[in-house]
Design goal:
Blueprint lengths: L1 H19 L4 H8 L8 H20 L21 H17 L3 H7 L5 H29 L1
Helix pairs in contact: 1-5, 2-4, 5-6
Length: 143
C-alpha cells in the first residue's frame, strides 16, 4: 500500500508540473528574465505549493504517525552551514542554467527531449562526485 500511495503522489506531482508548464525550461528562463520577457507564472506555482504545503503540514502534524509508517521521518539537522549554502547555490545555478530542477525534469522524461536526459545524467553524476569527495575528505581526516 505504501508503494501505491507513493506512486499516486508522484503521479499527482508530475501532473501538476505538466499542467503548470514547469516542464518547459523556457518558463523558468522567462521567470528569471525580469528585465525582458518576464513570466510570473512560476511565482504563482510556487506560491500555490507553499499554501498547500502549509495547510497540509497543519493537518498532518495533528496525527501521531503517518498513514503508512510507524513514525514521521523528520530530518534532524537544523544548522545552516557551508554544505547547505553551497548545495543550495549549486542547485540554484544549475536550475538557472538548465531551466530544470530534478522535480520537474523527472516528469519531463516523458517528453523525449535529449536535454532532459542530459540534465538527469548530470544530476546523477553530481550525486556520485559529491559522494566521492566526501569519501576522500573522510579518508583524509582519519589519516
Amino acid at each position: 500500500m505504501k508503494l501505491i500511495f507513493a506512486l499516486f503522489t508522484g503521479l499527482v506531482f508530475g501532473a501538476g508540473i505538466a499542467l503548470s508548464g514547469m516542464m518547459n525550461p523556457a518558463k523558468v528562463f522567462n521567470f528569471f528574465d525580469v528585465a525582458g520577457t518576464w513570466d510570473p507564472s512560476l511565482a504563482f506555482v510556487m506560491g500555490g505549493a507553499v499554501i498547500i504545503t502549509f495547510i497540509g503540514y497543519r493537518l498532518v502534524w495533528r496525527r501521531d504517525a503517518p498513514f503508512f509508517d510507524g513514525r514521521f521521518q523528520i530530518p534532524t539537522p537544523n544548522v545552516i552551514d557551508a554544505r547547505l549554502i553551497g548545495g543550495s547555490a549549486i542547485f540554484g545555478i544549475g536550475w538557472g542554467i538548465a531551466g530544470f530542477c530534478p522535480g520537474a525534469a523527472i516528469p519531463a522524461v516523458g517528453t523525449g527531449r535529449w536535454e532532459v536526459a542530459l540534465f538527469l545524467v548530470a544530476v546523477t553524476a553530481g550525486f556520485y562526485v559529491r559522494r566521492l569527495i566526501a569519501a576522500i575528505l573522510s579518508t583524509a581526516k582519519t589519516a
